[in-house]
Amino acid sequence: MRTSDRVHRELVAAIRELRLAPGATVSETELAEQLHVSRTPLREAIARLVNDGLVVVVPQVGTRVELISLHEVEEARFVRESLELSAFEAACRKPERDVRPLRRLLEDQELSRERNDFDAFFAADEALHAGIFALAGYPGAWQAVQRMKMQLDRLRRLSLPETSVLGRLIDEHTAIVDALEAGDLRAGRRHISHHARQALEQGPALLVKHPEYFTE
Fold first, then answer.
1. pLDDT tens readout for residues 141-189
2. Residue 79, by phi and psi: left (phi above 0), alpha (psi -120 to 50) or beta?
3. DSSP assignment of 31-53
4. Residue 14 needs a FRET pair 20 to 30 A away by CA distance; which of 43, 66, 152, 216 works?
5. CATH number of 3-65
């Protein structure tokens, strides 16, 4: 892997996980020191982030992390919900559906909730949804979702520390896994649609609480 590719991957993760907050100024000097790289691969990575719409170069000011767009959050929600509903249906058609790995991820989520470990919870959350696509036989479709849901992920991360959010998410995940194990397509579709819209429904409250993070 090229150095610029590694740097790009690490910066994307930092933006997704809010370690680089929306609107934060990006210092090339500080990043080069933190990532132990020279300016050249760093600038290559930043140029890719600009093309990705994750950072913006402001004349006379510098480079800053792009703000969260609720319109793009909604678009990502639409794509994710549509594809996950299809993946759930495909998984339900499988004669053998081993949901034990998903059950273990639910246990991981509960442990993360008890420890207030938001990073571990988010990782287990992502793994559970990826597992549904894998059971359906379309793991690459989840990768396609991943590439375009950055704005949605940032909103989701922003909502995790809110009271009761983690417990509610675990309940929703459990309902989805239960429906998958039972092959209950109607219940699964209902739970997935409800679950996919939760983060967006929290948008207005988060916009009031963190107005500096949003463009709209």
1. 999 998 889 999 999 998 887 757 899 999 999 999 999 999 999 999 9
2. alpha
3. HHHHHT--HHHHHHHHHHHHHHT
4. 216
5. 1.10.10.10
According to CATH, what is the number of the domain 70-213?
1.20.120.530
Domain with CATH 1.10.10.10 in the chain: 3-65
Q: What are phi and psi of 136, to 5 degrees?
A: -70, -20
**Residue range 30-77, pLDDT digits in tens:** 888 998 999 899 999 999 999 998 999 888 778 899 999 999 999 999
Tell me the helix, strand and coil percentages in the chain, rounded to 5.
75, 5, 20
Q: Identify which of 118, 114, 91, 90 has the alpha carbon closest to the alpha carbon of residue 102.
A: 91
22: amino acid identity, one letter: P
Kindly state the tokens that stand for 34.
Answer: 């933190």
Q: Is the pTM of this model over 0.85?
A: yes
